[in-house]
Write a structure and sequence with these properties.
Blueprint (H helix, E strand, L loop, with lengths): L4 E6 L7 E9 L3 E6 L1 H7 L2 E3 L2 E2 L1 E5 L8 E6 L17 E11 L2 E11 L4 E4 L6 E9 L13 E4 L5 E8 L4 E6 L3 H4 L36 H13 L2 E6 L5 H14 L11 E6 L5 H15 L4 H12 L3 H11 L5 E7 L4 H4 L3 H16 L5 E10 L10 H10 E3 L5 H12 L6 H15 L6 H14 L7 H7 L2 H15 L3 H13 L1 E3 L5 E3 L2 E2 L5 H10 L2 E2 L13 E2 L2 E4 L5 E4 L3 H5 L1 H10 L4 H18 L8 H8 L4 H4 L4 H38 L8 H10 L1 H5 L2 H6 L13 H9 L6 H10 L5 H25 L3 H14 L4 H16 L6
Parallel strand pairs: 15-18, 15-19, 16-17, 17-18
Antiparallel strand pairs: 1-2, 1-4, 2-3, 3-7, 4-5, 6-7, 8-9, 8-12, 9-11, 10-11, 11-14, 12-13, 13-14, 20-21, 22-26, 23-24, 25-26
């Protein structure tokens, strides 16, 4: 019995109704099952193998007798569907019927189609539908439990109809598969042949998904090779060139077969999948993906949060326990698929890099009886050697490496012809089209992204040339020029202000690679103002010829970007082929890459995010990085910075000036104090000037540990009395220049024996320093006007300090020019 034929029963204990269903499609979490509406009506609460099912779409026994069910966690190979008629009248029907051995028995029976399709009329709503009249060859009747089973063309092996009801003792009817569209509004394009000119059998720049596996052709041999390798090994690294179809091979080729249990056809053990990528934070990505799966499998909110915490903790044992908790069926297999593994080296910091690779090794080396874990990753060939930094992991990778070959001409031909065979295009028009593309591909056989965009654009524009694919193909620029033409045409229909914003977006979503050239980067929504983010969303959508967001029917342009992330708060290039193929883009990049400006900008992007998260001065730019970043503020490059980055560079610059001026001020205070000490004849001091300067240089907290005290401290305007001066004593206690307890005690004792002149001199020194510190404390808390007021008070005490004048002027200018995004 075919495992994709399923018995549908009732959850109600007193309801013995039953019927047949069969798998026609699947996604990452489960399978779609086609059956008859009257089966669902009779069982009321349908279950399959004791599992609840969801009714996704429903006709009616009185109109279109079809129903679509969805079951989570169950995967079987979907039947292929066929809309056109069989050349032969010989068919098979498969279904459950007789009850034997305490269970229903399923069987395959040969049958014959009687004549042509007939039009039947429903009981209500004047509904009509097409059906085949069939008769079983074994002289047995079309039995009650056969309802919902597939009618299969023996010649093609595809389902052409759904067995619905019996007409007489031996005869019955089967509803034509084309009526699936009448009940399922979101039926995937070309699940069977279609005359709909608006549906495209090609995917453009995007990778094929599990849901599009029925349109994925050309890599059958590689798919089987990886499956055989996966049966024997727990880890596979798929290595290939950019644009060679690595992601599509795994998502639309390997994963569907894995989920359908091809690794162990004898066992009924469940197979699960986590589809993730490193991005900027691999543990966050893994956590979010696991949270989505937990939601699908109805884990409660508290447990989902605990799982997310376990993964974000980066504790290997806790993460393994979390995975076992989610996938807790006995003898389950979990495949962790990591797409674009090169992001671990291009987007992640060293800490996350090391921790994530350590986790993968831990999962592979600590398999449990309840959960078998397998890992597949895809990585670009030009980044593969970066793995060698991690010796143990590199050894595992070398042993399990699968290098993706270029496609042969026959494989490329299948990519073109097989999807088109599901369309209304005549076969005699398909062959010349495929031949022209094969000639143009030449040495570009690894550039499958370019092939797909040429096919997609040809399909979208075919109506402009009377459905002549070959003529349309030449008009859209062929394989070599289709992508550039799509990008140029999208650019041209934008308004001038949108064109400027597009350039801004496209510069931000790439970064220089360590191996030369540039690679795409995931840019957060926070990097864009509202109008820029709106355009990013627009460019991620299908557009009509006027630049408006369009339905698939009117789509001609757009989809140059992809919105990513769990909540759609990030954006990236749909494919890096855009960088290589669009001359206008290359011109922009050449401009910003001059003098290493773009690489410097990427440092600012990442460090400014760290600073925004922690709000600590130690995360500001310093030294060489600051000097390089200041070059970004010139008029030519400044346009590519967001406001928070401009503010970050300026604050780093101001902080540097603050340090320099503060050191000068401290030096003056130290000299003044030492002069006073020498003048009084005392040589007791606990550290040298060099030691004090070193402490100030190396210990930022020494400088600012009393910020809160300075905010609340009122700096006195004058001395109160010569021998009982609380104001002066408070200044001594507060000033960081007199650091140790012994120093402070020394000066507290000295004030009682100093002459009035010496007391006034010491008071002015400490008062000056207090205002400097008070200004600094305000500035560190973004209280800029109060900071300026304090510096002006210091200037009143010592008006002839050039560095202080410069400090006041710069602070005033900085205050006046702060962007609105600064809090």
């Amino acid at each position: 019995m075919n495992a994709s034929i399923l018995l549908i029963q009732s959850k109600q204990a007193n309801n013995s109704s039953m019927g047949t269903g069969f798998v026609i499609h699947q996604d990452s979490y489960g399978s779609f099952i086609l059956t008859c509406a009257h089966v669902v009506e009779q069982v009321i609460e349908p279950i399959i193998d004791g599992l609840d099912v969801e009714v996704k779409a429903m006709g009616s026994s009185q109109t279109i007798d079809l129903a679509l069910l969805y079951i989570k966690g169950v995967f079987q190979t979907p039947f292929e569907l066929q809309r056109c008629e069989c050349e032969s009248k010989d068919v098979e029907l498969i279904g459950y019927s007789g009850f034997s051995g305490n269970k229903y028995q399923g069987k395959t029976r040969e049958a014959t189609i009687l004549g042509d399709k007939v039009t039947l009329k429903g009981i209500k709503d004047n509904a009509t539908y097409q059906a085949w009249q069939i008769i079983a060859k074994d002289n047995n009747e079309i039995e009650h439990g056969n309802s919902g089973g597939p009618l299969i063309c023996q010649q093609s092996g595809k389902v052409i109809a759904v067995v619905s009801n019996n007409k007489g003792v031996q005869e019955g009817y089967a509803i034509a598969i084309e009526h699936l569209k009448d009940i399922w509004a979101n039926v995937p394009p070309f699940l069977f042949e279609s005359n709909d000119e608006n549906e495209s059998p090609f995917v453009g720049l995007s990778a094929f998904s599990i849901e599009q596996s029925h349109l994925f052709f050309g890599r059958e041999e590689e798919t089987q090779e990886i499956i055989e390798k996966l049966k024997k090994e727990d880890f596979i690294a798929v290595v290939g060139d950019s644009g060679s179809g690595k992601s599509s091979l795994i998502k639309a080729g390997v994963i569907p077969k894995y989920l359908n249990g091809i690794l162990d056809t004898e066992s009924k053990s469940p197979f699960y999948l986590i589809d993730t990528r490193p991005a900027h934070h691999p543990f966050n990505e893994l956590s979010n993906n696991l949270a989505t799966i937990s939601k699908v499998f109805n884990l409660d909110f508290e447990n989902t949060n605990q799982l997310k915490k376990a993964i974000k903790s980066k504790a290997n044992e806790d993460i393994l326990n979390a995975l076992e908790y989610v996938f807790k069926e006995d003898d389950a297999t979990l495949l962790i698929y990591i797409d674009q593994f090169e992001e671990l080296f291009t987007l992640c910091d060293d800490e996350n890099q090391k921790a994530f690779i350590t986790l993968l090794l831990y999962l592979l080396e600590n398999q449990t009886d309840n959960l078998k874990i397998k890992i597949i990753l895809t990585i670009r060939r030009d980044y593969y050697n970066l793995i060698s930094e991690y010796e143990s992991f590199f050894k595992r990778t070398q042993a399990s490496k699968y290098t993706l070959r270029r496609m042969t001409n026959e494989q490329i031909r299948n990519c073109i012809v097989k999807p088109l065979e599901r369309t209304f295009i005549a076969k005699e028009k398909i062959e010349p089209f495929a031949k022209a593309i094969l000639q143009d591909m030449g040495d570009e056989s690894s550039e499958l992204a370019l092939l797909q965009i040429a096919l997609t654009q040809t399909w979208k524009h075919k109506k402009d040339f009377d459905n002549n694919l070959l003529q349309t193909y030449h008009e859209i620029g062929e394989v070599s020029g289709a992508l550039a033409k799509l990008a140029d045409d999208t650019w041209q229909i934008l308004k001038p202000i949108e064109q400027t914003i597009l350039e801004y977006i496209f510069i931000r979503i790439v970064k220089p690679s360590d191996t030369g050239g540039v690679i795409r980067r995931l840019a957060d929504k926070e990097e864009f103002s509202d109008d820029r983010w709106l355009l990013a969303q627009k460019l991620a959508s299908a557009l009509d010829i006027h630049g408006n967001i369009a339905s698939e029917k009117n789509a001609r342009l757009g989809r140059l970007l992809t919105i990513k992330g769990l909540e759609g708060k990030a954006v990236e290039l749909t494919h890096e082929a855009l960088v290589r193929q669009w001359p206008m883009y290359q011109k922009w990049l050449k401009k910003v890459n001059r003098d290493n400006l773009k690489r410097t900008h990427d440092v600012v992007i990442e460090k400014s995010k760290i600073y925004q998260h922690h709000k600590k001065n130690k995360f500001l730019l310093m030294g060489y990085e600051l000097e390089e970043s200041l070059r970004l503020l010139n008029d030519e490059y400044r346009a590519y910075l967001c406001e928070s980055e401009i503010a970050y560079i300026k604050k780093s610059q101001h902080y540097k000036q603050l340090n320099r001026w503060f050191k000068v001020g401290v030096a003056i205070v130290i000299v003044a104090l030492l002069t006073a000490i020498v003048y009084q004849g005392y040589k007791r001091i606990s550290m040298s000037i060099a030691q004090l300067e070193e402490r100030i240089e190396n210990n930022e907290q020494t400088r600012y540990s009393k910020d809160n005290l300075y905010l609340d401290f009122h700096v006195p305007n004058s001395l109160t009395s010569q021998y009982n001066n609380e104001a002066l004593k408070n200044l001594i206690l507060l000033t960081p220049s007199i650091a140790s307890k012994s120093e402070k005690n020394y000066w507290l004792q000295r004030v009682s024996v100093m002459t009035p002149d010496k007391l006034n001199k010491l008071f002015k020194i400490l008062q000056f320093e207090a205002y400097i510190h008070k200004g600094t404390a305000y500035f560190n808390r973004a209280m800029y006007q109060k900071a300026l007021d304090a510096y002006l008070e210091a200037n009143k005490i010592k008006p002839n300090q050039p560095y202080l004048h410069q400090y006041i002027n710069d602070t005033y200018n900085y205050l006046s020019s702060l962007p609105k995004c600064i809090p």
